[in-house]
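=== RUN LOG ===
request id: a7f3
mode: sequence -> structure
chains: 1
length: 330
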Amino acid sequence: MKVSEQIPENVMTAEEIASSRDTVLIAEDDPVFRRLLQSCLQSWNYKVRACDNGLDAWNVLQQEHAPQMAILDWMMPGMDGIEMCSRIRGLQQDPYRYVLLLTAKDDKHDVVQGLEAGADDYLTKPFNVDELHARVRVGKRILELQKELIQARESLRFEAFHDHLTGLWNRGAVLNLLQREEQRRQRSAEALGVIMVDVDHFKSINDSYGHLVGDAVLTEVAKRLTASVRGYDSVGRYGGEEFLIIVPGCDPQGLIISAERLRGVIAESPINSASGPIPVTISVGLVSVGPGNLKPVEHIALVQAADSALYRAKAKGRNRVEIADLKVSP
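=== RESULT ===
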């Protein structure tokens, strides 16, 4: 977990959601009604997936990026609309599927049965084209509202685990990741490294250039650190001008090499800002456990050890790397 733009495997992107929202599934065994529905929907700028039986329609709904709106005939071979509604709701899929049920039945009891099975709306055949258009637009508005709710939810989820300035994991999230990596290390006996980074003389940067420039410096430092670690390392903003990096599967010598590389990518070139180029360096403290060690180590103890090494680096002149001597018996 390297950066914040990772997408969980079971979450659709905004483009995929938009495509599925603009496609309507038709399940209708009567060819006349099916062609009429398809013609109307296409004239209203919808993409259409048309099926002549319930089983084929159900298979379409199992596919990745399946249509979010479905117009289902009540009576059709393979699987009727009522059963399909029940199955759709049983999946509890995200995003939501909007279902419009077509029926030749107009008895109130039948209508209630369809709605209770999971249909969002119904339309009696033979239907009026204008009424169909109005009901499809209602479904479209509901799906648009859902899109806004999903975006708001994802935004809140991102904010809960990421630093608002740099986009890195925030303090709570990176400590949680470290705790999980330490638990995994105890099972696998692989090495685990922790690197603590502090921007040297950051207060002077804020005092000399202002906090907006200071923010720009932190953002660029975060970018350089992120670009210089492996894809499965984790970089977080620990607080202020401090960054915490989790490096699983890296022995002490490899960890020192990694830390020196991080120090170098910051020091090698000034950071461009609104006030001009600003030379920036970092002090680095690190600690390593293992490999071959199965004894538990508190993740906070690892942070404290890396932090102590960091302060030794600062005391020795800054822009350097120091390693902690963590005594853990096998």
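=== NOTES ===
The radius of gyration is 29 Å.
DSSP finds eleven helices and ten strands in the chain.
=== END ===
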